[in-house]
Amino acid sequence: MSQEPLPEIRPDIPHGARIWNYWLGGKDNYAADREIADAVSATFPEIVDMAFTSRRFLNRAVRYLAGEAGIRQFLDVGTGLPTMQNTHEVAQSVAPDARIVYVDNDPLVLAHARALLVNTTPEGVTKYIDADYHEPDRILEQAREILDFSWPIAVMFMGVFGYVPDYDVARSIISRVVEAVPSGSYLALWEGTSTSEAVIRGVQAQAELGSPYQLRTVEEVRGWFAGTELVEPGLVPLTQWRPDDLDVSRAEPIDAYAGVARKP
């Protein structure tokens, strides 16, 4: 796939990927992002823990998918800025022949992806698609150039739908992608939930600064798994999805729910 020129980066407009990068201690963010991030964390300090626990969930989910579930193809939609232990690094450490396609449309993410989201094994494949998750057909068309849709694929949406106000729009995006992958594929996702007054106040502060974020109820998140079979332990707080030795001491509930499910 050819590398087209990068679109303009707008440092004056806050962006979710860069806000999360700041909470994770990264340097790929601007004043507009930091202003919102600081306002939210002042109201809801747990957001920083949520940022880190979401990455640990991604790592555990990918290890499960590449290991126990035997998945060799991953479609990670709404990638965000690269951090330590990205999807391809985890998957290819378990299965060297794993093929990973990242999808995002932020120009800063794209610039970093070209430099950092590179293959870690000779057998594997790591590619990046510049696309908006509101365009699932475009994503699928380009992903078919890299992934074999006659074999199972793990579809991943990691905390991306808080920036989609309409619940049914998010559901239709998920459904369109999951419908396109074969039986035996998996859906892995997490999303922020309206499970405490503190998190609700945090997103209100974020919205007041021009970056609205839509929390979901636990049952709304469960609805996104319709037509799939949740693997144990089901839909649970991020910290409680198969915690490993590093995470077991931090398994208290958090205002974000996660699950991994198999397509029958």
UniProtKB/TrEMBL annotation:
It comes from Pseudonocardia adelaidensis. Gene3D superfamilies: Vaccinia Virus protein VP39. It holds the Pfam family Methyltransf_19. GO terms for biological process: methylation. This is SAM-dependent methyltransferase. GO terms for molecular function: methyltransferase activity. The keyword Protein transport does not apply. Keywords: Methyltransferase, Transferase.
